Amino acid sequence: MNELVKKVALITGGGYGIGKKIALRYAEAGAKVAIAARSVEPMRETCAELEKAGAEAIWLQADVSKEADCARMVEETVRRFGRIDILVNNAGVAGPTKRITDMTLAEWQEVLDIDLTGAWLASRAAIPPMDRQRSGNILMISSGAGRRGYPLRSPYAASKWAMIGLTQTLAGEWGARGIRVNCICPGAIEGDRIERVIRARAESLGQPYEQVKQAFVSQAALGRMATEDEVARVALFLVSQASSGITGQTINVDCGSIMN
Asked: Most CB contacts within 10 A, which of 35, 48, 68, 80?
């Protein structure tokens, strides 16, 4: 369980959900962990859990859609821990659930600014110190919505599709410098976030909540939703030496979605 000893990881959106589980898994594997997000209280709680488990951890308030915030969170991580080995681009918003004709430009733009441009800005900030080390891992957290059309969720789907293209492009640009870039596409993941997504979809479609939830579950070959920890275990593999020959790849963690 020492796959990440002497490694430093920065996880955006690391205060809760998948980001928190990844932070806990990385800490368990020996990494020093920095988490960054807009909301402070969840990060405080996560850092307390990490420190209780014996990990070195810091939290950094940052909005990944802002260039200066991305530069600052990387600089502060390097200042505190001396290096950065892993960047997990996990921060994201679900955005609206409505048809494109009912959506405002501001709603569209907010999702792309955070989910896609945020990943681009954070990666751009993290690559120079990784390049100086001639080593590093960047991990994108996309979505099953990045694999297929997703009616009523156009900005979310567009941003998550684009993250896969960004993954492959950065892998090609920086592989010769020792930097690997990979991507995970979680499917429906058990937890509060998917419950909010399902409720919003049920309301928009005028369908019962249970009917919409069953539609999500029935798409999976295993007949259930995946868990946050199942995503986190793959996230650990993709930044560890066990995956040293893997870059530019996208892995689904969705219990075998038959829609992909």
From this structure: 35
Residue ranges of the alpha helices (H) in 56-153? 67-81, 105-111, 118-133
pTM metric for this prediction: 0.92
What gap in Å lies between CA 123 and CA 137, rounded to an integer?
10
In a domain? residue 106: yes
Contact (Cβ atoms closer than 8 angstroms) between residue 253 and residue 235: no
Q: What pLDDT band is residue 259 in, cutting at 50, 70 and 90?
A: low
Q: What is the CATH number of the domain that holds 20?
A: 3.40.50.720
Task: Find out whether 167 and 120 touch, Cβ atoms under 8 Å.
Answer: no
Q: Which residue bears the tokens 């994108």?
A: 140
Position 147 in a domain: yes
- Number of domains comprising the chain: 1
Alpha-carbon span 139 to 19, nearest angstrom: 12
* Residues with catalytic roles: 156
Cα separation of 4 and 10, whole Å? 13
Question: Could you read off the pLDDT of 148-189 as tens digits, one per residue?
Answer: 888 999 999 999 999 999 999 999 999 999 999 999 999 888
211 lies in some domain: no
- Rounded to whole angstroms, what are the CA distances from 91 to 35, 54, 63, 132, 184? 10, 25, 9, 25, 13
Nearest to 231 by CA among 2, 32, 19, 55: 19
